[in-house]
Known about the structure:
- The chain is mainly alpha-helical.
- The protein has one domain (about 10-99): Alpha/Beta hydrolase fold, catalytic domain (Rossmann fold).
- Helices cover about 45% and strands about 10% of the residues.
- Strands 1-2 form a two-stranded parallel sheet.
- The longest helix has 14 residues, at about 85-99.
- It is globular and about 35 Å long.
- One of its GO terms (biological process) is jasmonic acid metabolic process.
- GO terms for molecular function: methyl indole-3-acetate esterase activity; methyl jasmonate esterase activity; methyl salicylate esterase activity.
Amino acid sequence: xxxxxxxxxxxxxxRRYFIQTLDDHMLxxxxxxxxxxxxxxxxxxxxxxxxxxxxxxxxxxxxxILLEIAQIQAPSALLPGKASAEETAAATEAxxxxx
Length: 99
């Protein structure tokens, strides 16, 4: 079996999205925001009323977000995972506006 090697070059080739669950009692919103700051995703989605297991607490909301993520196309000028904070915010707002 090949040993897994996480490098910035390899890890940065996969687009990442963060789904923040606002009523998570295991991982507080502050802890979730810290994770986002330390490893910025390509977009952030929030589920109001979602707990640590949104597939149980808010399955329709989670499904809608996953479908939206599946429809997002990377801007051709950007490498996956390399969007600026402004571009990430704009993309997230654009998707949120559709909901």
